[in-house]
Design goal:
- This protein has about 325 residues and is of the alpha/beta class.
- The protein contains seven helices and 16 strands.
- It has two domains: about 180 residues, Rossmann fold, CATH 3.40.50; about 130 residues, Alpha-Beta Complex (Aldehyde Oxidoreductase, domain 3).
- The protein has a five-stranded parallel beta sheet, with helices on both faces. Strands 13-11-15-16 form a four-stranded antiparallel beta sheet, with no helix packed on it. It has a three-stranded antiparallel beta sheet with strand order 10-14-12, sandwiched between helices.
- Helix 6 packs antiparallel against helix 7.
- The longest helix is centred in the last third of the chain and has 18 residues.
């Protein structure tokens, strides 16, 4: 899924234009992020403003959901003939993006990508008017300083794909092309969802997956790891993973293989790498997913830095 943030006066209008444009090229999700947002996002051309501060949903059905939250319900879904709406607690922008990723090819974030508690995510940005938000530091669990890099550190800045004085000045075709040159957000769920949509799925009775994550320690006496940081050569790692997947797909009974390795800074407990195998039966699925992760670790040029509470070091520099 390709995410993009829109900030500045008139952001709502641009989000509408961009959503309609992207819908012609894939499924689109929108996150209206109003946390910590006291700015004006009305359209400067029409002087139209949101009377409710820009809430994502303004009809009375959300009020119906509010009353359940007031009595202690954690998550509420409302269903009617128009679709569904929901209210819940505890979700931040990153979690919302990862929840949308399995079912959407694009996601537009209308509003800030960070607040006082969360420095933000370094999404590609469109900056309207005089907004200074794009210059703020941004923590990025899955992406880095480059718009197409997925590399960088927690203090990277948001890559700017376009600037304009107003929403109508943005060329949507150029913006979409630039967005599709960035690295998408991938999750295990998004990979599995696409695998289930394979033309060979009707002949497949098994999906096996592997997820690698950041562990704190190997033994009880080890110094705890706080985070890992991965770097990869642009395009080279993806090309090699594609070659490995294609070779594994030549095996009897193996229908499809997908791989993804995140880069940048990844905190303790977060996911690092995914391998997904679609196969006719569980035997070839399990065997191939194990071989897939072994080959990825051995053959794909990805460099790892480990940060413990005592020190930081590149793993390949250690004796």
């Amino acid at each position: 899924m390709y995410p993009i943030g829109v900030v500045g006066p008139g952001s709502e209008r641009l989000v509408e234009r961009l959503a309609e444009h992207l819908a012609g090229h894939g499924t689109v999700g929108v996150i209206a992020n109003r946390r910590g947002d006291e700015g004006d996002r009305g359209d400067p051309a029409t002087n139209e403003h949101s009377t409710d501060g820009g809430a994502a949903v303004t009809d009375s059905s959300m009020g119906d959901l509010d009353r359940y939250q007031r009595v202690g319900v954690k998550t509420v879904y409302g269903l009617d003939e128009r679709g569904w709406s929901a209210r819940g607690e505890g979700t931040d922008l990153r979690e919302a993006l990862y929840a949308i990723a399995p079912t959407c090819e694009f996601c537009i974030v209308d509003g800030t990508t960070g607040d006082d508690e969360n420095p933000g995510i370094a999404l590609p940005q469109v900056v309207l008017g005089d907004s200074a938000e794009a210059a703020e530091p941004a923590a990025n669990p899955d992406r880095g300083a480059n718009a197409n890099g997925n590399r960088g550190s927690a203090a990277s800045t948001r890559p700017i794909l376009a600037r304009a004085p107003d929403p109508e000045a943005i060329d949507l075709d150029e913006l979409r092309e630039a967005l599709c040159d960035t690295e998408p957000i991938e999750t295990l769920e998004s990979l599995v969802e696409r695998t289930k949509g394979s033309p060979q799925a009707p002949e497949s009775g098994a999906i096996a997956t592997f997820t690698g994550r950041v562990r704190a320690r190997e033994g009880s006496e080890d110094t705890p790891t706080e985070f890992l940081e991965f770097e990869k050569y642009e395009g080279v790692a993806e090309e090699r993973m594609g070659q490995i997947s294609a070779e594994l797909e030549e095996r009897a009974g193996v229908k499809e293989v997908r791989m993804h390795h995140r880069s940048g800074r990844i905190e303790y407990g977060e996911d690092i790498v995914f391998v997904v195998v679609l196969a006719g039966h569980r035997g070839e699925a399990f065997e191939t997913v194990e071989d897939g992760i072994d080959r990825l670790k051995a053959e794909v040029p990805i460099f790892k830095k480990e940060a413990t509470i005592d020190e930081q070091f590149w793993v390949h520099d250690r004796p």
